[in-house]
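Problem 3 from the worked examples.
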Amino acid sequence: MSDTKKLTNKTAWVTGSSRGIGRVVAAHLASLGANVVIHGTSLTSTQAFGEAPSLESVANRIQKDSGQEVLSVWGDLSDEITVSQIIEQVIQRFGQIDILVNCAGGDIGAQGAMGENAGKPVVNDAVFISPQDSRAVIERNLMTCILVCQAVAPLMIERKEGWVVNIGSIAGLYGRESGAIYGAAKAAVHAYTRALAAQLRSNNVYVNCVAPGPIITPRFVASRPIDESKQHTDGTLERYGVPIEIAKAVEFFVSSDSSYVTGQVLRVDGGGQLWPA
C-alpha cells in the first residue's frame, strides 16, 4: 500500500463535516483512501456560509476528487435516537466504522449558525449568557461528542480496533471571559477524551484530541473581526491556521504514525499557547 493511500479499506465518519474544518478533514481522509461518511445538521447546512448548495453536493465533490465511496447523513447528534439511526445507515452501507472524528461543534447558541455574529450568543460570558444559549453550546460541543462516542465505541471494542479523534479547542485550555461556556464545553471534551482513552486502551482503540487555534473558515470570518496581517498561508507562525493543518493532525492520529499515542490533546495553533495542558 502506498503511503498516500494509508487508509485504504477504512471507513471514517466525520461529524460536522458539511462545511468548515470538518469538510476539509473528510476530504483529506478520503484522499488517503478511506471511505467517508459526511454529516451535517440538515441537507442544506452547507449553505450557511456559502460553502456548497447541499450536503449531497459536498459528498459528490469528495467522491469525484478522491475516487472513494462517500455517504452523506444528517441530523441532530445531541439526540441519541438520531445518532443510532445514522449509525445504522453507516453500518448498512459500509459494514463498520474504523475511524470517528467528532468535529460537530462551534460557539453557536440557541439562535443557530445563521443568527447574529454567525450564531455566537449575543451575551457570551460566564455569568450573563442565557440558559438557552448555555445549553445549546454544551449540547452542540459536548453532548454530541459523548453520544456519538458512546454509540460507536462498542463497535470498536468488539473488533478490538478503532481510532477516535475529538476536535477540542485551545479555548478549553485557558480561562477567558468571552466564549466562557464554549471554553468550558471544550475543556470537558478534552477530559472526556482522556477518560475514554483510558477505558478503551485495553481494547486497542486509540482516542486522541486535536485542539485548534484560530483557523480561517467562512464561519470564522463571519463571526469576528479579522486581523488582515495574519492572513498568510505560510512563511510565518504569526498567522491564522488553515483547515488542512487540522486535517493533517487528524491524519497523524488515525494512522500508524501514532501507533503508541493515545489519550493526548494536541494543540494546532502555531505556538500561540506554550504552557502545559
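Problem 4, a separate protein:
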Amino acid sequence: MIIPVVLSGGSGSRLWPLSRKLYPKQLLPLMGENTMVQDTVMRLDGLDDLAGPMVVCNEAHRFLVAEQLRKISKGASAIILEPVGRNTAPTVAVAAMHALMSDEPEAGEAVMLVLPSDHAIADAGAFRAAVSTGFVQASKGHLVTFGIVPTCAHTGYGYLHVGDAIDDGASKVSRFVEKPDAYTAAGYLASGEYLWNSGMFMFKVSRYLEELEKFAPEMLAACRQAISESRVDLDFVRLGEEAFAACPANSIDYAVMEKTTDAVVVPLDAGWSDVGTFSALHEASGPDEAGNVAVGDVKQHKCKNSYLHSTGRMIAAVGLENHIVIETSDAVLVVPADKSEEVKDLVEELKKDERSEALMHREVFRPWGSYDSVDMGERYQVKRLSVKPGATLSLQMHHHRAEHWIVVKGTAQITRGEEVFLLSENQSTYIPLGTTHRIANPGTVPLDIIEVQSGSYLGEDDIVRFEDTYGRAGTNES
C-alpha cells in the first residue's frame, strides 16, 4: 500500500502578494483551475493500491485544506495539524506514527510517499512511473528520494551525486550537496552525474522510524509523545502542543537521508518546478512567443519576457521587459525578474511594520465561506459576507460593536436573540451591541450579505462564541 503524505505547511513568501501567510501558495490556483494541493493529490490517480492522502498542515489552514480536498472528491485519511513548524523530519515522523495507529495489520510495511504540496509537475504519467519504480525500491527496505534531471546549472537547488546503479533505473545516492555557486553548478551539469534534490521521498513506515531512532532518537521520542497526546477534533488530528514544540527541528535530508546507508535515488524527468519564485512560476506557466505570461485582465503592448498577473483590476503594460507585475485587491508588486528572490525580504519588512498585507488577503476565508473588507473608517467597517449553501456561522455576540445586515443575494436564516426569521434579497436587519446572533444559509445558492459594523472596537477577536459547527465554540478564533 502507498500512503501519500502531503506536506502543506509552507508560507510561500517569495510569491507575495498572491501568497500570504494565512493563504499560502499551495492553496492557490497558480497553474490552472486547481490549487497546487489539489494538483498534488490528483496526479496520484492511476497508481495501484493507493490509500487516501494524509495531509499535514498549519492549524490556520485546516478548513481550507479540507474544503479543497472535498471539492475534488478526495477525502483525506487524516489531516494532522502542526501546532508549530518543526521542518519535514518530525512532520513525517508523526504521520508515520499515525499510520501505525490504523487497523491495518501490516501498517508498518506500508510505503509512505512524501510530497510537498507546492510543486508543479507537467508530465503526471512520468511522475507516476517514477513513483512505481520508487515503490519497488522502498518495498525492499531502501529509503528513496527522487532526483530531478537538471535542465540548467541552477544555483537555487541542492544536488544529489548519483552512485552505483541498482536496478530498474534506481541508483545509490553517493552524496547530498548544498546549493552550489554558478561555477560548481555548471560542473555538475556537465558531468551528467548530478540530479536536483526534489524533496520528495518514499520509504516504509517502519524503515523511516527505524532510521530516525538510530540517527535522531530525541526527535523520535518527542514525536511519540506528541502523538500519544493527540486528539481528534472534527476531521482533524491535533498533536500534543508542548511535546511537538519541544521536538528538535530538522529536515528529512539532514536527519536521515544524508546519514543512512540505504539511500536510493530515482531520476525524475517530468517538467518539475518547485515554483519557489515568480521567475520559476513564469517559466513553469509556459510563456508565449514573446516570453510573456498574462493571467487575468491584462493588456500589454510590446512587452517581452514578463509575467503579468491580475486578480481583479486590469493591468496595462507598455514596453515592459523582464519584469513581474502582480495585482491583488490590496497590493501591487512590480519587480525585475532577476530580483524576484528578494520579494521575501520585502515581506519581512512588511512584517516588521505590522502590515496586515503580509498575513492575509483582503478577502479572508472561513469554513462557512469568506468575507471581504470593502471599506473601513473611524468607528465603522463594511464587509461583504459570502456564505456557502448549507453553511452556518457560529452563534455569537460582540461587546463593542453593533451590526446591520443587508441581503443582496440568496436567502438568510437569521437568529437575533430569541427570534429566528428569514431575510430575502433587499431585506435587512439590525443586531444591537451585546445581542446573540447567527447567520445560516438554508438555500442551494451562495448567500451574499453586506455587513455594516459600528462601534468603538471592530477587531475580529471581539467575538464570544456559544455554539459552532466547526469546533470553535468558547473561543474568539477568527
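Solution to problem 4. The two ends are 39 Å apart (CA to CA). The chain has a mean pLDDT of 94.
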